[in-house]
Q: What sequence folds into this?
């Protein structure tokens, strides 16, 4: 039986940066921005991006480690962030021909760029070679393509090898990327060092997930390979440990825990649904039992960003019996990271206009926004932050009301959020809905133009709330 408390809104209160609070307080500016740029619009700021870079640098400097931060541009397509990273003396990780070409055209030198693209065709490799960009080689076909390019043009190129197949407690960490440690050693010692045009510069890996013990194991095994190469007289200039640094989106741990608890109760029929048609967000119900966990980003984290990196560096490396930071420093190698989402933490919001209100056949309130679900989407099963309702008008109904946000694609599943949202008052046509902290992956990673809808405009907000749309964004 459902208790009265079962229908209480399950808040997921987002952390809001001061620049966002200031912007949201200026309703007239928001309304004018949406009017000029059309709905939806991504409003972004460089200030949190710079703050996040500084946080990472503080950790590296604390341990006196040579370092380089490469912004993973695939997390946000706006060139402004790439230029800001380069201006701060850091680098940019590029994952496609257009990403690389745009960065070069923006004046970012090749030695501040790396190429990690999962697919590296000949034109992409040729551009990287021509511009002296460090190329992360993932497989032998890439290596042989690059070999043919540099031999044909008699042009030198610097390369790093991506590693995979690390082990932890006797189990191999599964991945579709990279060379095994043994194959990497063989390729470096037998072919690359004797190559007339290729220069080995370092090692790279990127692990899926957020397990610190897995990161520590991968670094330890990479260091063993570095030591083996050193014994063979081959120096390694850098070790790149990739991205995937956690972000904390939520103000309260209790809200996060309560949401998971109540979602499971809802899917088991023990309370009213909190997602549309009781969507389990990736869990499976079989014979009154739930299997698995929601396939969502861990929106609450006690070790976000720089604290996550610091935890990795202070972990003990087996079999060395020393903290990782001591081992890195002793070898005098540059430690590289490729954060994307975490550098963009608090750097942007997405704002859309309300265009209709209606009820579906099950009596649910549907609030239609002038956007589609791909314009605020990542690989997570749902975006688990409360949106912010902004209205200039006197509401038809003053009491709180719950409903769902839907978008413009002509699909039954066109829900912007699967979670039921509580509005403080009944939404009015022309009201605005702001989705907080969307700059990392949410804005651009899956956006599409089906139905010939225009992509969202990207604008930037200065400290004094001046809104500008910059070239190349």
A:
């Amino acid at each position: 039986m459902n208790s009265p408390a079962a229908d209480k809104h399950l808040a997921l209160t987002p952390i809001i940066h001061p620049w966002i609070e200031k912007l949201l307080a200026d309703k007239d500016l928001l309304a004018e921005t949406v009017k000029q740029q059309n709905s939806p619009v991504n409003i972004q700021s460089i200030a949190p991006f710079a703050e996040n870079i500084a946080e990472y640098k503080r950790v590296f400097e604390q341990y006196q480690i040579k370092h380089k931060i490469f912004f993973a541009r695939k997390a946000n397509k706006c060139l402004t962030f790439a230029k800001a990273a380069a201006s701060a003396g850091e680098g940019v990780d590029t994952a496609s021909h257009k990403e690389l070409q745009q960065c070069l055209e923006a004046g970012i030198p090749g030695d501040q760029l790396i190429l990690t693209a999962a697919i590296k065709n000949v034109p992409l490799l040729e551009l990287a070679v021509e511009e002296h960009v460090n190329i992360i080689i993932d497989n032998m076909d890439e290596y042989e393509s690059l070999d043919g390019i540099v031999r044909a043009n008699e042009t030198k190129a610097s390369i790093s090898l991506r590693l995979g197949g690390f082990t932890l407690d006797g189990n191999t960490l599964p991945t579709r990327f990279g060379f095994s440690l043994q194959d990497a050693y063989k390729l470096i010692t037998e072919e690359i060092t004797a190559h007339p045009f290729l220069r080995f510069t370092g090692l790279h890996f990127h692990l899926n997930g957020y397990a610190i013990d897995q990161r520590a194991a991968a670094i330890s095994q990479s260091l063993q390979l570095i030591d083996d190469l050193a014994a063979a007289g081959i120096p390694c200039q850098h070790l790149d440990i990739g991205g995937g640094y956690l972000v904390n989106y939520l103000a309260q741990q209790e809200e996060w825990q309560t949401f998971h608890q109540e979602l499971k109760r809802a899917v088991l029929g023990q309370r009213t649904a909190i997602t549309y048609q009781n969507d389990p967000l990736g869990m499976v119900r079989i014979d009154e039992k739930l299997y698995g966990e929601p396939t969502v980003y861990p929106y609450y984290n006690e070790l976000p960003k720089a604290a996550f990196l610091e935890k990795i560096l202070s972990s003990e490396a087996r079999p060395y019996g020393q903290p990782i930071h001591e081992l890195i420093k002793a070898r005098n190698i540059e430690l590289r990271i490729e954060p994307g989402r975490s550098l963009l933490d608090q750097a942007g919001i997405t704002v859309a206009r309300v265009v209709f209100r209606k009820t579906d056949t099950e009596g649910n309130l549907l609030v239609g926004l002038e956007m589609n679900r791909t314009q605020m989407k990542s690989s997570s099963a749902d975006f688990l932050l409360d949106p912010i309702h902004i209205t200039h008008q006197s509401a038809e109904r003053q009491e709180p009301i719950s409903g769902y946000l839907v978008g413009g694609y002509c699909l039954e599943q066109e829900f912007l959020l699967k979670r039921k949202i509580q509005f403080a008052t009944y939404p009015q046509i022309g009201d605005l809905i702001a989705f907080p902290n969307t700059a990392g992956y949410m804005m651009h990673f899956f956006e599409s133009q089906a139905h010939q809808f225009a992509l969202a405009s990207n604008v930037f907000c200065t400290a004094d709330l001046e809104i500008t749309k910059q070239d190349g964004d």
